[in-house]
Amino acid sequence: MFTGIVEEIGTVSRIRQNGPTLMITIKANKILHDVNLGDSIAVNGVCLTVTNFSKDHFEVDVMPETYKDTTLKYLKVGSEVNLERALAANGRFGGHFVTGHTDGIGTIWKRTNYENSILIELEIPEKFSHLVLEKGSIAIDGTSLTIFKVSHNTITISLIPHTAKASIIGSKKEGEKVNLEFDMIAKYLHTFIQNKRTTTNSKGITMDFLKENGF
Q1: Which residues contact 2 (CB under 8 A, 6 or more apart)?
Q2: Maximum C-alpha span of the chain
Q3: Calpha distance 70→133 (Å, rounded)
Q4: CA–CA gap between residue 178 and residue 165 (Å, rounded)
Q5: What pTM, to 2 d.p., does this model score?
Q6: pLDDT per residue over 31-64, tens digit each?
Q7: Distances (CA, A) of 94 to 33, 35, 58, 143, 173
Q8: Strands (E), 80-153
């Protein structure tokens, strides 16, 4: 489990590819202070397992399914990546519930400077459009962000200067791809309601339905 609060920007120093699998070496500093083999680290929002490490780098493996469904396949030597360690039981929860299981890939359509913020409009897969709402949360390349505007299959986020500096989203350009993870609570709630509709043949959400299910 992660929070979407990026701890450090790392740099890819080596990539070994074998078909649809990768072994990636990433230079880092802060997140290696208490690392152990088998630890989970979110790399651009993708939960990966540490397979080797030293004082200034760590290695992870990318399996075929992850290679296919994430932007990790676009990484090159020198690419910067967002890094976050798994949430410690005694840690602060500053973002939102992030699992590190990417739902899909989005594309940056437009980037606009607005006063002291950066507005970024992204295209999201249409099949996930029901999971976004204004003022809701989304993880983009592992960064917990608030949705500023929703329009069909696009969303707009507003970056404050700190976020733009502390994560790679601040340097992304129009046309670039990003990993998307939609809000976990929204996904569970949608599935719950869909299952209830199937089992009860409900035609919609009523006050009685909400009361019966604890709302």
Answers
A1: 42, 47, 84, 86, 87, 95, 98, 99, 100, 142
A2: 58
A3: 23
A4: 17
A5: 0.87
A6: 999 999 999 999 999 999 999 999 999 999 999 9
A7: 21, 21, 25, 11, 27
A8: 80-85, 104-114, 117-123, 137-140, 143-151
